[in-house]
Design a protein that fits this description.
Distance between the termini: 101 Å
Shape: elongated
Strand content: 35-45%
């Protein structure tokens, strides 16, 4: 009899204990929820990030890495081209030296739409010999010009700098005879071998950098000295 009463009490107390635990858990849940709400309201508000169109379209993906892209033609940077003209206006004279092209562009930090503006200068030289004996002479061709370029990263490649522009240049040729008497006669009679001209040129080019500083370039122009130049490019 006594043993049966103990079993009955044990059976009755187990559900009561479980019910009491459920009541305590239900009472604790609102407290935890209110604490979470208080913590959410206490979190400091952050200002929305603002980025430019160029950063948003860069291959660096600033949303993921959270840093400004490092483009091939950076604001305030310089790009130096050292090239050789593989194509000239008309046929290249036999034995010509050059044409050699040197250009320097500076990024002005002026954003125009999705690209940036550059300003620079260019120098070119070529020379060749013609004639024999007393009429042997050397012709030297010179070019110096100012140029403005627009750089647009349409391929979204931070190693590639694609650009187009316009230049205004001074071109001159000078003929020098080896025989002094022939040279004096040439200067006295004023043959039209020496020519000087100014002209506008259109520029289309691209640079590709293998490292942070060094790369190659190709550039097409409709000027009187070199139509297509290929060479090395240095960024600093």
């Amino acid at each position: 009899m006594g043993f049966s009463m103990l079993c009955l009490l044990g059976t009755l107390s187990a559900p009561a204990f479980a019910q009491s635990a459920d009541v305590n858990a239900a009472a604790a849940e609102p407290a935890q929820r209110s604490q979470t709400i208080l913590l959410a309201h206490a979190a400091p508000a952050t200002e929305p990030a603002t980025i430019s169109y160029r950063e948003a379209t860069s291959s660096y993906k600033p949303f993921a890495v959270k840093r400004k892209p490092k483009a091939a033609f950076e604001d305030g940077g310089w790009a130096l081209n050292l090239g050789y003209g593989v194509m000239m206006e008309g046929t290249k004279p036999d034995g010509i030296t050059g044409p050699f092209q040197v250009s320097l562009d500076k990024a002005l930090g002026v954003e125009l739409g999705p690209g940036v503006v550059g300003l620079g200068a260019e120098f070119g030289y070529a020379g060749y010999d013609f004639g024999e004996d007393d009429e042997a002479a050397t012709v030297s061709l010179f070019q110096i010009s100012a140029r403005g370029t627009y750089h647009y990263d349409f391929l979204q490649n931070d190693q590639l700098d694609t650009y187009a522009g316009i230049g205004f240049g001074y071109f001159t040729s000078k003929t020098t005879f080896e025989d002094e008497e022939v040279q004096e006669m040439y200067e006295e009679f004023g043959d039209d071998e020496d020519e000087s001209t100014t002209e506008f040129t259109f520029i289309i080019g691209a640079r590709y950098y293998f490292t942070e500083k060094f790369g190659v370039y190709g550039e097409f122009q409709n000027n009187a000295l070199s139509r297509l130049a290929l060479g090395l490019s240095v960024k600093f």
